[in-house]
Amino acid sequence: MITILLLLYAALAGDIEAMIYDGNRAECFIRNEHKDYTYQRVVVFFLALASATYGFLISEQQMLLVPLAGELVAAALCFPLVHDEVYNFCRLWLKWARALRTTNPVALHVVDSLSFHYAWQEYRFGYQSKTTTAVVDLPGPARLALAVAGGVVYLATWAWLLVK
């Protein structure tokens, strides 16, 4: 549960950070970016709730430390893939939305769907930004390898719990 919530947070963070670094999102899309902020806050609320639940259960039964640790390790390993791929896709989506808005006098909802379509056509797994200033910017294959390892940790964690 915590892994899934953290990965949802990673995707929302990638989307929101694309908007921040692009700087023109509010003018490019019809959708309201404040909804993304709200979704992110809801996910954080549920993360806190899930963590508190684990905390209660751990005090009742020490064996739940293993699944909690497994979930956190799995989430940490999967985070770069989910976050960076969503971020990179959203930057392409914003690029196309901006280009369509400046060249075609069409309705914003048309820009949203067309720009999404064009971004999806241009998007390639493992895309690396040439302008990134990130301290750690892993290449796509490294992000995928970490995510696969995270998936194995996640499955092993819950297999262990079911066996116990």
Architecture overview:
This protein has 164 residues and is mostly helical. It has one domain. The protein has six helices and no strands. The radius of gyration is 19 Å and the shape is elongated. The mean pLDDT is 82.
Quick recap:
The chain has 164 residues and is mainly alpha-helical. It has helices at residues 2-22, 25-28, 33-60, 65-103, 108-122, 140-163. The mean pLDDT is 82.
Report the uncertain regions. none
**Radius of gyration computed on alpha carbons:** 19 Å
Main sheet: strands, sense, barrel? none
Instruction: Return the average pLDDT rounded to an integer.
Output: 82
The ordered H/E elements are HHHHHH
| Broad structural category | mainly alpha
Portion in beta strands: under 5%
Share of helix, binned: over 70%
Contiguous helical run count: 6
Distance between the termini: 18 Å
- Total domain count: 1
Which descriptor suits the 3D outline? elongated
Strand elements, count: 0
